[in-house]
Automatic annotation (TrEMBL):
This is methylmalonate-semialdehyde dehydrogenase (CoA acylating). It comes from Aquipuribacter hungaricus. Its EC number is 1.2.1.27. It is an enzyme of class 1 (oxidoreductase). One of its GO terms (molecular function) is oxidoreductase activity. It holds the Pfam family Aldedh. Residues 17-475 form the Aldehyde dehydrogenase domain. The keyword NAD applies. CDD domains: ALDH_F6_MMSDH (cd07085). Keywords: NAD, Oxidoreductase.
Length: 495
């Protein structure tokens, strides 16, 4: 069985804590590795490595940083399949979906390759007589990222390229459930030629995270995970004086109007609800069927669900893999039970599907006539369960979205441009889809939700990412012509 430790100074650092966490293949239930969980002293050592590298890295020229980022981009491209294989074997998602994750990760790396443009400041000549004003953005120093299990390669790569491109050194604390892909990414980073200490990985649990949150040498933290931990990270980190962005959970609504293209809406609902076994923060977990679209839409979704192939991620036939752990699978099944008991109509019951072996598989579930008081509506289930809520009108549908505590993504399906325009204006979510169920912004926009889906005010990657990983400075400069120099005690005016 493998042992997975930490990555410090471009080499493996074997853990000494004696505390480990099992890494499991969810398709078989077999433990494939033991992961070392860091002590606070080990976190200190990792941060010290990043701190030692910080001065040199921040002084490294834009030209050199750009060349290294391009080399890293080429290595990620060349190793797409291997990254996908590693993450699929520990996460469980099917290989084609894992390949999609790597493709979206590459977008973020490619954006960071443009750092020369991204870090350009502004310049105003003659802002006042003989005075020029210009701005620059400078790195923060040592920064950290704490990432969830559901995108073990993409979410770290939402953070690392931009942070490092801006001149920071980075400490990553990946999810303990699927650490192999982020460890491999760190190896590729070293292979690209980034100096020792620029990217370090410390594996651990809450002990490591809590130590990073208050560590005096960590300037900023980016977090992605569940809402309770996001809130904890934001509150603790900001109280310790750090810059924090903490992205939390979601319950994404897809509003389907009566004039929508039914086939398009049904396909979209199935793909967005059950892809990656529903373990996506941008998964559609609620369909709001407006007016008389409910019956035909539910029938169309149910018909598509019957043919879904559920199996191991490395089987090319599989469309959906297992859930991340046995406990999580049982928890999701418990929600189906609770929904049925509360009076929802169970159109398709995932618990009926029988699977061979000890993998953490669960069939997909479709619940109709769900009401907002049911736990299947109020909670983030994070599994292959789609609930349908019916409303009479668009206004009622929007009231549901508005009242929901989360605001990550939201989508509308309609042929009416006016309705879509009204939706995009009114909806209380950070990422909006118009006939697009999973509106994850491209790498040159920024990703982030509203309400309990994001603590802090800066979204992830893209322009807001560059802003988050740097601090601004404005210089007001005068090189007077010696012939015009004179004594003047008045407050400087812009004339
Ligand atoms: P999680 O909150 O359990 O874990 C996230 C990270 O926090 C992990 O690295 C974990 O080790 C650490 N952690 C866990 N418990 C902790 C504690 N008590 N104190 C300190 N650190 C702790 O999330 P998860 O189960 O890995 O991921 C799924 C969740 O992430 C879902 O809620 C999903 O919606 C959310 N998510 C959100 C986004 C987004 O962009 N908003 C993206 C992906 C996932």
């Amino acid at each position: 069985m493998d042992r997975i430790s930490h990555w410090v100074d471009n080499a493996v650092l074997t853990g000494t804590s004696g505390r480990t966490s099992p890494v499991t293949d969810p398709a078989t239930g077999r433990v494939t590795a033991q992961l070392d969980l860091a002590t606070t002293a080990e976190v200190d050592a990792v941060v010290a490595s990043a701190k030692a590298a910080a001065v040199g890295w921040s002084q490294t020229s834009v030209a050199t940083r750009t060349r290294l980022m391009f080399r890293f981009r080429e290595l990620v491209e060349a190793n797409r399949d291997e990254i996908a294989r590693r993450l699929s074997s520990e996460h469980g998602k099917v290989l084609s979906d894992a390949g999609g994750e790597v493709a979206r990760a590459l977008e973020a790396v490619e954006y960071a390759c443009g750092l020369a443009e991204l870090l350009k400041g502004d310049y105003t000549e003659q802002a006042s007589s003989g005075v020029d004003v210009y701005s620059m953005r400078q790195p923060l120093g040592v920064v950290a990222g704490i990432t969830p299990f559901n995108f073990p390669a993409m979410v770290p790569l939402w953070m690392i390229p931009n942070a490092v491109a801006c001149g920071n050194t980075f400490v990553l604390k990946p999810s303990e459930k699927d650490p192999s892909a982020p460890m491999f990414v760190a190896e590729l980073f070293a292979e690209a030629g980034f100096p020792a200490g620029v990217l370090n990985v410390v594996n651990g649990d809450a002990e490591a995270v809590d130590h990073l949150l208050t560590h005096p040498d960590v300037a900023a933290l980016s977090f992605v995970g569940s809402t309770p931990i996001a809130r904890h990270v934001y509150e603790t980190g900001t109280r310790a004086g750090k810059r924090v962005q903490a992205l939390g959970g979601a319950k994404n609504h897809m509003v389907v109007l009566p004039d929508a293209d039914l086939d398009l809406a049904a396909d979209a609902a199935v793909n967005a609800a059950y892809g990656s076994a529903g373990e996506r923060c941008m998964a559609i977990s609620v369909v709001v069927a407006v007016g008389d679209v409910g019956d035909p839409l539910v029938d169309a979704i149910a018909a598509r669900v019957d043919t879904l192939v559920i199996g191991p991620g490395d089987d090319p036939e599989s469309q959906m893999g297992p859930l991340i752990t046995r406990e999580h699978r049982d928890r999701v099944a418990g929600y189906v039970e609770a929904g049925a008991a509360a009076g929802a109509r169970v159109v398709v019951d995932g618990r009926d599907r029988v699977f061979d072996g000890d993998g953490f598989f669960l069939g997909v579930t479709l619940l109709d006539h769900v009401t907002p008081d049911m736990t299947v509506y109020t909670d983030e289930i994070f599994g292959p369960v789609l609930v349908v809520v019916r409303t009479e009108t668009y206004v009622e549908a929007m009231a549901l979205v508005e009242a929901n505590p989360w605001g990550n993504g939201a989508a509308i399906f309609t042929r009416d441009g006016g309705a879509a325009r009204r939706f995009q204006h009114e909806v209380t979510a950070g990422m909006v889809g118009v006939n697009v169920p999973i509106p994850v912004p491209v790498g040159y926009y920024s990703f982030g939700g509203w309400k309990d889906s994001l603590f802090g005010d800066t979204h992830m990657y893209g322009p807001e990412g560059i802003h988050f990983w740097t601090r601004g400075k404005v210089v007001t400069s005068r090189w007077p012509d010696p012939s015009t120099s004179a004594i003047d005690l008045g407050f400087p005016r812009n004339d």
